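Field log, afternoon session.

UNIT: design team B
ACTIVITY: writing a sequence onto a fixed backbone
BACKBONE:
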């Protein structure tokens, strides 16, 4: 079965606990603390694998966990970092939070590898807590918990051109003729149950075309396999409407096109903004290759800027002209591929509301922000990336920390210190 959706539970690794131990060597009766730090927990990483095209690996297994970090050891030895878990998915896979349906990651375009859940930081060993007044601390910090999340995986096929039409109008035959795809072809409804991808090779560069399975009226409401197929059109740049110009089954091609456009609009109105071309197929079954149906199609749609190309997917007549028209439109199409922006940051919902302190250190002329939630967020967030840093700024603002700093009189260019990290403040 073609699998383009799955729901799984992912969990990053817990950080290893810090260790409590003391030097016990010959001639050193009262050795100091030497407990090592715990290892960081493993991350959950999504990776695009262009060798797979379904989500079938996630249909029969529900839970995926990265390895926990090891506990610290004596003699200042750190615990081993937990192994990251790499989940391979097809290009075009969207990872959503199952509860809110918001996008966590879109594995498309240049985004071929993304850390979705970060493992917890390892805890500090007792060697870090020795002071002049407490030279033998019997306390070490526990490792930070991993993050567990239920996510939905949704595959949206990436293709330059989407081939749409009612069942049995010849889409699979057309795709087999113009590309290297080998779709199953038979003369009955709903032959195609999988979106078939093929590459059209042309002199000035090829393009990818997707045969979207036969749509029916009510598809936008989920009737039949409507939603399963409509999602694959969202990323395409151009749509080819294929109709049976010979009306071998008594269908009215004009009505069919209007019906499909109605379903596209109901599912996502922006789909109708994409350029469209009509392929009037099966002209080999028409005497002299022209009839009233083709004339009606031209009169109805060409004034709206939708060209009509009579073709025969069986004999190949008119196909070359159609492909050149598609290529010309693609060359004029300057938009970047559709990549969905991240809307949901798992770290934000794992950090409880906890007290914090905001103080000004006059001696060092820095503002100091501390608190359990701040430390946890720094552990979960990759502040070296632009997205991660912006997310961390948003966290500080939502928790009221920015307001507290401004109340203390912070100005642009002043330094803020948080657990060993220093930032310059700018509005």
């Amino acid at each position: 079965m073609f699998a383009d959706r799955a729901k799984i539970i992912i969990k990053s690794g817990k950080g290893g606990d810090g260790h409590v131990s003391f030097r016990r060597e010959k001639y050193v009766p009262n050795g100091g603390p030497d407990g090592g730090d715990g290892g960081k927990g493993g991350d959950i990483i999504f990776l695009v694998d262009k060798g797979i095209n379904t989500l079938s690996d996630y249909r029969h297994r529900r839970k995926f966990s990265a390895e926990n970090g090891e506990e610290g050891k004596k003699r200042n030895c750190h615990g081993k970092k937990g192994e990251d878990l790499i989940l391979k998915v097809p290009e075009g896979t969207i990872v959503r939070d199952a509860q809110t349906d918001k996008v966590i990651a879109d594995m498309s375009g240049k985004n071929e590898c993304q850390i979705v859940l970060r493992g917890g930081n390892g805890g500090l060993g007792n060697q870090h807590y020795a002071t002049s007044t407490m030279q033998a601390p019997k306390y070490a910090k526990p490792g930070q918990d991993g993050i567990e999340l239920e996510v939905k995986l949704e595959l949206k096929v990436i293709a330059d051109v989407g081939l749409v039409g009612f069942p049995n109008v010849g889409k699979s035959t057309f795709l087999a003729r113009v590309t290297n795809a080998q779709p199953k072809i038979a003369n009955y409804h709903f032959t195609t149950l999988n979106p078939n991808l093929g590459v059209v090779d042309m002199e000035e560069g090829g393009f990818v075309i997707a045969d979207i399975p036969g749509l029916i009226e009510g598809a936008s409401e989920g009737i039949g396999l409507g939603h399963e197929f409509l999602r694959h059109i969202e990323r395409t740049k151009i749509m080819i409407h294929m109709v049976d110009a010979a009306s071998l089954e008594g269908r009215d091609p004009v009505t069919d096109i209007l019906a499909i456009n109605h379903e596209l609009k109901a599912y996502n109105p922006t789909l109708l903004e994409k350029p469209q071309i009509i392929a009037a197929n099966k002209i080999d079954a028409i005497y002299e290759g022209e009839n009233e149906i083709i004339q009606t199609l031209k009169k109805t749609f060409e004034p709206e800027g939708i060209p009509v190309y009579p073709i025969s997917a069986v004999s190949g007549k008119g196909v070359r002209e159609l492909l050149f028209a598609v290529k010309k439109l693609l060359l004029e199409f300057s938009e970047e591929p559709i990549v969905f922006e991240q809307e949901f940051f798992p770290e934000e919902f794992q950090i409880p509301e906890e007290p914090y302190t905001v103080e000004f250190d006059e001696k060092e002329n820095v503002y100091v922000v501390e608190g359990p939630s701040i430390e946890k967020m720094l552990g979960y967030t990759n502040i070296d990336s632009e997205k991660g840093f912006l997310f961390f700024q948003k966290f500080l603002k939502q928790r009221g920390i920015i307001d507290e700093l401004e109340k203390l009189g912070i100005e642009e260019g002043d330094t803020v210190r948080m657990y060993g990290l220093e930032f310059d403040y700018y509005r």
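LOG NOTE: The longest strand covers residues 148-155.
NEXT ACTIVITY: expression trials, pending approval
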